[in-house]
Design goal:
The protein is mainly beta. It folds into two domains: 218 residues, Single-stranded right-handed beta-helix, Pectin lyase-like (Pectate Lyase C-like, 3 Solenoid), CATH 2.160.20.10; 178 residues, Single-stranded right-handed beta-helix, Pectin lyase-like (Pectate Lyase C-like, 3 Solenoid). Helices cover 10% and strands 50% of the residues. It is built from three helices and 28 strands. The chain has a 28-stranded parallel beta sheet that branches. The longest helix is centred in the first third of the chain and has 21 residues. Bound molecules: 2-acetamido-2-deoxy-beta-D-glucopyranose (4 copies). The site of one 2-acetamido-2-deoxy-beta-D-glucopyranose has 4 residues, from β18. Keywords: Cell wall, Cell wall biogenesis/degradation, Glycosidase, Hydrolase, Secreted, Signal. Its EC number is 3.2.1.67. It is an enzyme of class 3 (hydrolase). It catalyses: [(1->4)-alpha-D-galacturonosyl](n) + H2O = alpha-D-galacturonate + [(1->4)-alpha-D-galacturonosyl](n-1).
Length: 396
């Protein structure tokens, strides 16, 4: 027994070393049995390569080379011995059938300190089967389809230059994490694909989403409870629902949302431009220090919107006004066109009026000759600079 265990260990070590030297320091999933035929499930090979890299000294990268790999749901977990790289050069495809997933993710990176995901490859969620079942919109009892790529309990990570297409639910979810930069991402799913948020961030701090393009059927970047210290910069969105803080206040004991900056972004052909959205409910939390700056909004139905009356499913008249308190929100240098007459719509809660909502240099056109309007309630917006439409309290 002892001898054969030793022999097999030595054999594994020799194998790892040869695999390592063959691919420039990365463990190639093909050396662990992955076949690039788009049909054979490479999940086992990906997991084995990850485990080998994670637990070895020195080898810290897993390579998915060029080619088309079917990969069933996998959780790539740490803690690992050193920093880890997941280099995706080819395409990984999820099983098309939502029934193949027992968890709420397809590929999950968990409990890792120092992670890089790069390589220019593509995560293909093969989502059409999930969308055609209507996602989970509106149904009370319905299994939520899996997120394509999830990062949870990850610290100090860079997600760089990868693509995500046709997720079944969110494309990328960052939760319970800190110090993550996601950049040069290309995220694509059809305008009518439900719940395909580009990047959703919750219970995480010091997160940057930069230099990316998101075309999807839902929010471009969405900010959930507990997001603190988030910078969204140089991101182009549309189609989809725009950049959104919320929905907040749906559940009890949500953590506050704070220190959010959205800067130099373009949002085009979307339902909303920049939005803060809270549910009608008794659950209290706060959202504050939120700045939307240098944003070009083209042809959005609601270019600037605060909606504290969100209530898509229930009989809304019975629901209490939102108890999420919104304060210190800046809309600075927001320019472009509105697809509807109400270019600025600030619907704050009657139970919890918004405080310190500052509009500066807002310049939004509706169709030629037809002036857009600003509507607001339960807030006294402060405005300065160019203001089209004007949001003076006298207008209320
Ligand atoms: C929010 O900003 C304040 C003021 O700069 C800072 O003290 C605090 O650490 C920030 N919090 C996060 C989570 O970014
Ligand atoms: C945004 O993009 C421009 C041009 O590529 C670049 O100069 C600038 O540094 C970027 N901003 C950030 C914060 O990365
Ligand atoms: C804003 O972002 C665009 C690309 O998204 C870039 O071309 C431009 O240089 C950026 N401007 C600044 C001031 O960062
Ligand atoms: C607001 O958040 C930004 C980061 O997004 C931070 O730099 C700034 O100090 C915060 N301001 C306050 C008053 O907390």
């Amino acid at each position: 027994m002892a001898n054969s265990a030793t022999a097999s260990l030595l054999c594994t070590a020799a194998f790892l070393l040869s695999a390592w030297s063959a691919s420039g320091g990365a463990l190639n999933v093909k050396d662990f049995g992955a076949i690039a035929d788009g049909r054979s499930d490479a999940a086992g090979a990906v997991l084995a390569a990850w485990a080998a890299a994670c637990f070895s000294d020195g080898v810290t990268a897993v390579l998915v080379p060029a080619g088309n790999f079917l990969v069933g749901p996998v959780a790539l977990r740490g803690p690992c011995k050193g920093p880890m790289t997941f280099r995706l050069e080819g395409t990984v495809k999820a099983p098309a059938d939502p029934a193949a997933f027992s968890d709420e993710y397809w590929i999950s990176f968990e409990s890792i300190d120092q992670l890089t995901v790069n390589g220019g490859g593509t995560f293909d969620g093969q989502g059409a089967t999930a969308w055609s079942r209507g996602g989970c919109t509106g149904a009370s009892k319905c299994r939520i389809p899996p997120v394509s790529v999830r990062f949870s309990f990850v610290k100090w990570a860079t997600i760089d230059g990868i693509s995500s297409i046709d997720s079944k639910f969110f494309h990328i979810l960052i939760s319970d994490s800190e110090h993550i930069t996601a950049q040069f991402l290309t995220v694509t799913s059809p305008a009518d694909s439900p719940n395909t948020d580009g990047v959703h961030i919750t219970r995480s701090s010091d997160i940057t989403v930069a230099h990316s393009t998101v075309r999807s059927g839902d929010d471009c970047v969405s900010v959930g409870p507990g997001a603190a210290g988030l910078l969204v910069v140089n991101v182009t969105c549309g189609p989809g629902h725009g950049i959104s803080v919320g929905s907040l206040g749906r559940y009890e004991k949500e953590e506050d949302v704070k220190n959010i900056t959205v800067k130099n972004c373009t949002v085009q052909g979307t339902q909303n431009g920049v939005r803060i959205k809270t549910w009608r409910s008794n659950y209290a939390s706060s959202a504050y220090n939120i700045t939307f700056e240098d944003v070009v909004v083209k042809d959005a139905a609601n270019p600037i919107i605060i909606d504290q009356y969100y209530c898509p499913h229930l009989s809304c008249n019975d629901q209490p006004p939102s108890r999420v308190s919104i304060s210190s929100v800046n809309f600075w240098n927001i320019r472009g066109t509105s697809a509807t007459k109400t270019a600025v719509n600030l619907m704050c809660s009657s139970a919890n009026p918004c405080r310190d909502v500052d509009l500066r240099d807002v310049d939004i056109y509706y169709e030629a000759g037809n002036k857009p309007v600003c509507e607001f309630s339960n807030v006294k917006p402060i405005s300065s600079g160019i203001m089209q439409p004007a949001c003076s309290p006298s207008h209320a």
